[in-house]
Write a structure and sequence with these properties.
The protein has 134 residues and is α/β, with parallel strands linked by helices. Helices cover 49% and strands 14% of the residues. The protein has a four-stranded mixed beta sheet with strand order 1-4-5-6. The chain has a two-stranded parallel sheet with strand order 2-3. Helix 1 crosses helix 2 and helix 5 packs across helix 6. The C terminus is likely disordered.
Length: 134
Amino acid sequence: MEKFLADTTLLVDHFRGDVSAFNFLKNKSPYISHVTLAELIQEIKTKEMLQAVSDATSDLFILPINEAISQLGIDLMKKFFHSHHLEYLDALIAATAIEENLILVTANTKHFSFIKSLSLVDWKKEKARYSPNE
């Protein structure tokens, strides 16, 4: 698979012991957004789990939210909040994938499928939908 941005759902399932998430990530080095890292930390219930997540994510490529990503996130919100209820954190994750030219790997394709400039893979189905940038 090409370079990809792992959405929070994939990583949460992986850390919860989902074998299919583990197998999908096996021998891959995904990129993650700072947003995804923050969402992962919100899911953590124990200090031990925080350490495990910190250790596991230390080898990943963590992409910061820069000005271009922030602006694209706002533009996506303006375009899709009222029609599709796009949430800001999802807009930032989508904007990161678009700006960095990465495929977004998620189980929540319904949160993103209306963004035509975004390349998506549903990791549970492993089917890609590619659309060139607008």
